[in-house]
Structure prediction request, 225 residues.
Amino acid sequence: MKKIIVISAHPDDEILGAGGTLIKHRDNGDEIHWLIATNIFESQGFSKEKISSRQLEIEEVASTLKMHVHKLEYPTMGLSSRDLLTMVPKISKIFQEVEPEMVYVLNRSDAHSDHRILFEAVMACTKSFRYPFIREVMMYECISETEFAPILPEKSFLPNCYVDITKQMDEKIGLMRIYESELGEHPFPRSERNIRALATFRGATCGVEYAESFQILKSYRFERL
Prediction:
């Protein structure tokens, strides 16, 4: 059994980028933790109904994937570099308590600034001399954010790891449907058609029907070869 943690700036990031892989972790009996950095509040103009429905969505996704939820409660769409001062210690505390072997983190150059700031905070908590239990750090792509980032060589998402999610694809779509308000019709990026299209493209790259792709940022393996 592995201990893993998946990082979301907003609920739905985890399904878009790693939903099929999380299903496989669940079915393997792994212990899954889910860190959500932001939340929505009335002070931002969100209704009580919307806030309540969002919490129900989180609970349903967490229950289905058997995930332990950790919330940081920063206002959505508001993360900035000044939040790193408080965010890094909060993430560090969670990591020290959970001791995850694998970390799934958002792409560092996504279009959404919440994603970029959260990436910086998470990576500050992966140093081997402070977090020796972490064996792998995997960066995932998030449709509607990763592909809209500036196309600069130093910021490109360069997948070098693929997970076959052919058997998990339908359940991934089912999980995404829980976030009903986040889905739209093609050509809106977060549509069922486009989620399947990206998985089809990634699958074609590695010779399977559907796949999710990751960029390995750190991998420490000490087994005798």
